[in-house]
Amino acid sequence: MPFQSKSQRGYLWVHHPEVAKEFERKTANIKTLPEHVRKKPRMKKREENK
To answer: Which residue among 3, 10, 21, 49 is the one 20 to 30 A from 38 at the CA level?
Structure first.
């Protein structure tokens, strides 16, 4: 799995360097990565019919 952002890349190098090495090989162009990736909005839970 390649890196999704530069912040993910930094985190993995500090906390999980062995995983980061593998991701480095799978990431095509590190210079084009975004700084951060926004979280996807959560879906609201359905209210039960009363």
So the answer is: 21
Buried b (16+ CB within 10 A) or exposed e, 16-25: eeeebeebee
In whole angstroms, give the CA distance from residue 15 to residue 24: 15
pTM passes above 0.90 = no
Residue 30 pLDDT = 80
Q: Is the dihedral of CA 17, 22, 23, 29 positive or negative?
A: positive
28-45 CB burial, b ≥16 within 10 A, e <16: eeeeebeeeeeeeeeeee
